[in-house]
Amino acid sequence: MKAYRTTLAEIKRRGGGSVDRARLRATTGAAIARQIAADPDTAPPLDRLGPPVPSVRTIRARLAMTQEVLARRLKVPVSTIRNWEQGRVRPDPAAIALLTVLDRDPATTLRLLAGSVRGK
Fold first, then answer.
1. Shortest CA distance to 94 belongs to which of 53, 41, 47?
2. Distance between CA atoms of 95 and 75, rounded to whole angstroms?
3. 18-22, 43-47, 59-63: which range is least confident on average?
4. Three-class secondary structure of residue 39 per DSSP
5. Stretch (H or E) spanning 11
6. How many Cβ atoms from other residues are within 10 Å of residue 84's Cβ?
7. Is 59 exposed, middle or buried (CB count within 10 Å of its CB: 0-12, 13-18, 19+)?
8. What does the alpha-carbon distance between residue 53 and residue 99 come to, in Å, rounded to a whole number?
9. What domains does the chain contain, in order, with CATH numbers?
10. Least reliable range by pLDDT among 22-26, 75-79, 81-85, 101-105
């Protein structure tokens, strides 16, 4: 659809810009739900999106680490870090939890991860 500038006067001259308030008030929640379900461009409800994912790139930059170093410290493949940063793959819930604690307390998180493989 092409966008163009117009004035309110032009919109009114063409018969647009009015709202059928009675029809608007009569619209039920069920009707709205049907319209949303029928529109493929409607975003999913926020509760279905899952928890927010901390920005891996921002965390990594703040820690002054390369993707390779962060991957080694988190004990994941470097391709995982790349995929998270580029938005190709959404981290699973456990990874989101790890990224969240890394974002909030990086020193403690990295210290604990460094000591997580004892006796092997």
1. 53
2. 11
3. 43-47
4. coil
5. helix 8-13
6. 24
7. middle
8. 8
9. 8-45 (no CATH), 56-114 (1.10.260.40)
10. 22-26
